[in-house]
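Side project, low priority. Logging it here so it doesn't get lost.
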Amino acid sequence: MTMLDAFEVECFEEVGRDFYRQITETVLSDHNLTAVVSKLRIFIDPRIPIFVAVGTIRDAGASIRVSDIGSIQMQGDETVISIRDETYLAQFLTRLYEIFGHDHVDQPDRFTIIISKAEIPQNFEKIEIVNRADTVLRDLIYAMTVIAPEGFKVRREYYGKRQFYYAASENTLPEHVVEDVVSAQFTLIGEVMR
């Protein structure tokens, strides 16, 4: 997990700190988030109890468009899309069904989609399939849910342009307590909570 500019775990128990550091490294790596997260600080205090993760992110990248997924060729009254990248294929098919309907979209094999008897919109290749910022948000929140202690179901999360936080507890905590802890953690990584 070398892509992060800064990574800290604070826990008053050394064993807990090492354990959560290892879990965090594994989860972020498994979810391909090490290239997106720039700074990450995790604070755990089982006495309150609270788990807080704050961080900054790099640019998530551009939206995924039809042209990123495959090449488009007109063949008579059919449009054939040759798939180059399967990463977002499920979302792509869903989007095609929305635009053309199930009756006009066929996938004869893994790398081919045929659109038949339907008018292809102008600039079809530029239609957005996936907004990567939304994908990163879901992945980050899911990753933090996996990392947080079992039973910490009361949670708050925030994701802005460059910052995120995830706070979880077994109990409902007063809002000012969560805000104070989150703000202090941002300060420790050289950031101001926005």
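Brief comment: Residues 153 and 170 are 6 Å apart (CA to CA).
Revisit when time allows.
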